[in-house]
Write a structure and sequence with these properties.
This protein is α+β, with helices and mostly antiparallel strands. It is built from seven helices and six strands; from the N terminus they run ββαβββαααβααα. A six-stranded antiparallel β-sheet has the order 2-1-3-4-5-6, with helices on both faces.
Length: 181
């Protein structure tokens, strides 16, 4: 089960909305959606797959989005996670540079994911690191909330079960987040 919300920091405090991301196909589209909700404010896009992984995207005006994902390998198995896990975030070259894009993961069969092949394994058959492997664990900018009192070390220790609640509590936005949950 997923939970998605937008938290916008306004002059009056934090406001939350439970926006659906079903029509969003890229990080750019997600950032545009957040900017539409609060064009002049900081917006945090919160995505949580219950007990599995969470992601935070911070949008400050027209600046590039800052992204943190708690577990890239698990998030990659999710349509929402694929939106956040860009080649840039994963440290890959863009597909234009001759490297496969993340869309190539769509070619995997159910057998590949279900047990025929371990898609989390970072080694290929000859023992070398696979440049297309998705890393286990956190990726992105763990310091994206530092100016709100949540430093990178704290973000890295959050569990997927209660991360968004803990972040909202620290921000003083727990009530507005729970109202849309």
């Amino acid at each position: 089960m997923y939970f998605t919300a937008l938290l916008a920091r306004t002059d009056d405090g934090w406001e939350a909305s439970d926006t659906e991301f079903d029509d969003v196909e890229s990080l750019d589209e997600l950032a545009d959606l957040a900017r539409e909700a609060a064009p002049d404010d900081t917006v945090l896009v919160c995505i949580e797959q219950e007990g599995v992984w969470f992601g935070i995207v911070r949008i400050d005006g027209e600046d590039d989005p800052r992204v943190f994902v708690s577990d890239a390998a698990r998030a990659m198995r999710s349509a929402y996670g694929e939106i956040l896990l860009t080649d840039e975030l994963l440290g890959r070259q863009a597909a234009d540079d001759g490297m496969p894009a993340l869309d190539d993961l769509d070619d995997l069969t159910d057998d590949d994911v279900a047990g025929g092949r371990d898609t989390d394994d970072n080694d290929n058959d000859d023992g070398a690191l696979d440049p297309d492997a998705v890393p286990r664990g956190p990726v992105g900018d763990a310091g994206l909330l530092a100016d709100f009192g949540i430093d990178a070390a704290a973000v890295l220790t959050l569990s997927a079960d209660d991360a968004l609640s803990e972040i909202a509590e620290t921000l003083g936005a727990a009530d507005v987040l729970e109202a849309v949950r």
